[in-house]
Amino acid sequence: MATEIPRLDFPAFQQLAPETVRALRAVSAATRQSALGAELIELVKIRASLVNRCPFCIALHRREARALGISAERLEALAGWRESPHFTKAERAALAWTDALTQLRDGDVPDEAYSEVSAAFSGEDLAALTSAVATINAWNRIAMAYRFPAAPDAESGR
């Protein structure tokens, strides 16, 4: 990014596109009704935001994850989750799925990622997981397009 000057903040975007914000929040609410659990959903949101390098969403979802009791050690391990022992088999499948959907290669999602995630989750939960990943990617792109300023992160001093 050539410059870090915010173009718009979230409240201003919300005023300009209230129906978009409502729709994305509705999808997020639907995924929270699934059996995935709030912790897994936050891990996925942070992972996608790390891959997309979205400071606003990283800070927001780290705060939400800490409020859920997710340890700082697990949050830090998300950057290199493949090498970390801090994630369950199901979490690893969800994170691999997140990476595959966030970093589309040649317009395709690899069969290996699908096989792994579909073995770990029911059809309903996989649909919710896919929706959660798609939604955070939409939020990342909105936040990055307008360079939403990240709110200070109390634990890291940012």
Task: Give short descriptive properties of this protein.
158 residues; mainly alpha; 8 helices; disordered C terminus
Mean model confidence by pLDDT: 92
Largest sheet, strands/sense/barrel: none
Number of helix segments?
A: 8
Overall form: globular
Structural class: mainly alpha
* Straight-line N-to-C gap: 19 Å
| Order of H and E elements | HHHHHHHH
What is Rg?
16 Å
Estimate percent helicity.
55-70%
Indicate the proportion of strand residues.
Answer: under 5%
Strand count: 0
**Unreliable spans:** 154-158
Characterise this structure:
This protein is mainly α and 158 residues long. It is 66% helix and 0% strand. The chain is built from eight helices and no strands. It has helices at residues 10-16, 18-32, 38-52, 55-67, 72-77, 89-102, 111-120, 123-146. It is globular and about 40 Å long.
Question: In terms of topology, how is this protein built?
Answer:
Blueprint: H1 10-16, H2 18-32, H3 38-52, H4 55-67, H5 72-77, H6 89-102, H7 111-120, H8 123-146
Helix pairs in contact: 1-2, 2-8, 3-4, 3-6, 3-8, 6-7, 6-8
